[in-house]
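Deliverable D4.2, example record:
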Amino acid sequence: MFNQGIQAEYLKWVVDGGTRKPKNKAHVLPANIRRNKYGNIPRGKVKKLLQRSDVFSGKVKGVAGIYQRTRQGLKLLFAYKAEVKHEPQYGFREVAEKRVRQTLARNFAVAMGRALRSAR
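Output generated by the structure prediction step:
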């Protein structure tokens, strides 16, 4: 599997799992907000929300995040997290190792046969 640096950066968390620490102060994780089919929020959404008068960034009852004032009370839109834990999702290494075990001997025999036939 070949990938670019940017893809490798986010794929390593879903392939290997682990704890991701933020580059800045905290990760901004969507809580009660619509996302696209890939699970992402639109570019500039946080900035646009913070410009509204009914939305603010702060800590409420020990939970830091971006909140919206509604008639029912406060609604958490985004939560700030110091680190995010990821579980491995794809089992990529297990699938690759299984495939290698299935095909290595046969492929090696074919390649060795070609090499011996072409040897001088």
